[in-house]
Known about the structure:
Blueprint: H1 7-13, H2 54-66, E1 71-75, H3 78-86, E2 94-98, H4 103-112, E3 119-123, H5 129-132, E4 139-145, H6 157-164, E5 170-174, H7 179-182, H8 185-188, E6 192-196, E7 210-214, H9 217-230, H10 236-246, H11 249-269, E8 273-277, H12 287-293, E9 300-305, H13 310-319, E10 324-325, E11 335-337, H14 349-354, E12 362-365, H15 371-382
Parallel strand pairs: 2-3, 2-4, 4-5, 5-6, 10-11
Antiparallel strand pairs: 1-7, 6-7, 8-9, 9-12, 11-12
Amino acid sequence: MKEELHFNTATIHGGQSPDKAYGAVMPPIYQTSTYAQKSPGKHKGFEYSRTHNPTREALEKSLASIESGNFAFAFGSGLAAMDAVLKTLKPGDEIISTDDLYGGSYRLFTKIFKDFGLKFHFVSMHDTKNISNVLNDKTRLIWIETPTNPMMNIIDIKSVVDLVKGKDILVAVDNTFASSYIQQPLKIGADIVMHSATKYLAGHSDVILGALIVNDKNLAERLKFIQNASGAVCGPMDSFLTLRGIKTLHVRMQRHCENTAQIANFLKESTKIEKVYWPGFKFHPNHNIARSQMKDFGGMLSFVTKGADYKSAIKIVEKLKIFTLAESLGGVESLAGHPASMTHASIPKQIREKSGVVDALIRLSVGIEHVDDLITDLKQAIG
């Protein structure tokens, strides 16, 4: 039986043991492409680093532990991890996804895999009934983001799982925004958890890395084959840095959540703000679901100022001093982004705005700095 550790302990010790060679507490960086063999096929468990690497293996064991999964796979990026999931499908299969997902995910679906015979349905998943309307005998995958990027919509994972129970349909959850600290979809019944580990898991804006975690052995074997055959693996240095980041995930997330709650309330009370999107508000759609499936409300929020348009939103993000205008999220430093021109620029304007990603929307990734300094920075930028 798998040992069940408290989350804070699992981030440090889950799946880990001292290095067998010299007892190193942190797994060494095995910066090697190949391994000596005594005879063909006779080796110490490793033969070629695309297939497996000791540093990457240590990370994968940690990922499985913090997501309460049986198997984990580390990839060169979050999109590479998604690519592997989609390669488990075949032409004619259909996928249902949320209509306000990350722009890179939308691009992968519509510009790459659509041409290989996969059909995608994008629906508002805040109500599970919208999924039922397009569910059919060709559906093979439901792709969930919750909270969504950047509208912070909450999707009821359990309701989606119950909807397809007993059917040959996988439920995958992009857990990037929440992180394993806040939400563990496998425990709710999801089949696959995906992370852009670049974000909260690594946590220091110095890594590009993706992850998949599953429980089913057959699915794990399929993903492992695809990973090795396609070769989209991460290197040992990125594995080491991500593993190091995971060890402080719990304490970082606590501060991310605390700071974001205070900033969300500051923005809500401001006379210059029209709307704030943050699942911690009681009036936020599906707030009660967020309370039931999440430990906290995360470090992300989005907002629109009153009377704002494209130019005024750009002016605000350009004036920020502590919040850095940059792509990505989840690092210890606070970042600001303009989704319409940055993370979601690949989505056609009409489709983007229908889901709420208007030109005036600003997204914040709240870091772990002192919250008073962050609020002061927002005040001067908003004016």
